[in-house]
Amino acid sequence: MRFILKVIGSLVVIGMIGYLLFYFNLLPFISSIYVSPEKTFDNFINALEGNDPNVASQFFVADKQPQWLKTLEIYQKNNLLKPFAIELKGYELDWKKTTQADGSVSFEVTLPSGRKSTITFKKQGDLWKIESL
């Protein structure tokens, strides 16, 4: 009997969470943030402009988030998040998109120095995340 009550209680909690996400219309919002590599990159830039290294680091693949959080916190401490965002915005103007055999997507960009660089995105589940920048 106790087991059945625990199961029913768990289902009620899960149902309430789902209802709240639906009621406040958060499900489409969450999935639309990572709908494409380009959208992920735009939202990453928005997080940088918002001076939020915690949110910005979440746009990276899971195993790189801790290191990027440390890096972005240093940028924040030195007031470099917004200049970094401005620099990255310029990269979008010259993207050459390539889809890799493993499904990841790379964009070759030309830096202001004229040097070429690559930004790579990888799908984790249904979400596009930055693999390398």
Task: Could you tell me the CATH topology label of the largest domain.
Answer: Nuclear Transport Factor 2, Chain: A
Ranges where pLDDT stays below 50 over 5 or more residues in a row are: 9-13, 18-29
Overall spatial form? globular
Largest sheet composition: 4 strands, antiparallel
The overall average pLDDT, rounded, is 76
Count of helical stretches: 6
Helix content: 40-55%
What structural class do you assign from the helix and strand content? alpha+beta
Task: Using the 3D structure, state the CATH architecture of the largest domain.
Answer: Roll
Taking all Cα atoms into account, the compactness measure Rg is 19 Å
Order of helices and strands: HHHHHHEEEE
Number of DSSP strand runs: 4
Q: Give the tally of structural domains.
A: 2
Distance between the termini: 54 Å
Proportion of strand residues: 15-25%
Q: Trace the largest sheet across and list its strands.
A: 1-2-3-4
CATH class of the largest domain: Alpha Beta
What does this structure look like?
This protein is an alpha+beta fold and 133 residues long. It has 2 domains: 1-32; 34-132, Nuclear Transport Factor 2, Chain: A. 54% of the residues lie in helices and 19% in strands. It has 6 helices and 4 strands. It has helices at residues 2-23, 26-33, 37-49, 53-57, 65-77, 81-91; strands spanning 96-99, 105-110, 116-124, 127-132. The protein has a 4-stranded antiparallel sheet, covered by helices on one side. Strand 2 and strand 3 (116-124) form a beta hairpin. Helix 3 runs antiparallel to helix 6 (81-91). The radius of gyration is 19 Å and the shape is globular. Residues 9-13 and 18-29 have low confidence and may be disordered.
